[in-house]
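Troubleshooting entry. The earlier prediction with zinc ion gave an output that would not parse, so I re-checked the input for stray whitespace and re-submitted. Clean input:
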Amino acid sequence: MATRSPSSPTPHLVAGRLALDFANTSPTSRNLSWDEYVSFLVDARLVSEDRAARLRPLLLSEPHAVDAVLLRILRLRESLRAIFASLADEKPFPGSWVEPINEILRITEGHDELVPREGSWSLHFVARENGLEWLLAAIARSAAELLVEGPRAPIRRCANPSCRLFFYDDSRTHRRRWCSMAVCGNRHKVAAYLRRHSPRRRN
Ligand SMILES: [Zn+2]
């Protein structure tokens, strides 16, 4: 499995929930290009590579439609980042912040389907493939499900201050600290090791 650094445009999907992974896209930027968004959809398995290959050229062939959906994408991501940051800090947030989620839920038609997941079943939303907004439907739905879980939903941020990616802590102990042990966890371990073994400490 490839591991990307948290600063790469589409971080390795580590959050465990679609809406959190979406909030983590290009974490250091307020922008997101059409290409980055389509790549995220592929990484998140919302669209196939074939489908992505048909979506990418829309930037040139249907620039107005792409611009319109990119505005919604950024609006949704900004509200999700603010909401998840509040939830991770266990702070309340204004009700108006969910409006971009409702906006997507309102315009995307679809239905639920049962899919097998880790030995049991879960309900997955399947949007009607109509216009470009349908691409956002599953993300908005995932965000809505997290909000319905309420303040006890284990939404956390990576303890690495230069990372701060969101993740859903469904570890058994509920004490997961890192977006990824392979990236931030190991970095922390190495730094702690170096601190313990630095010559200055020993003197
Ligand atoms: Zn991290």
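This one parsed fine. Residues 1-11 have pLDDT under 50 and may be disordered.
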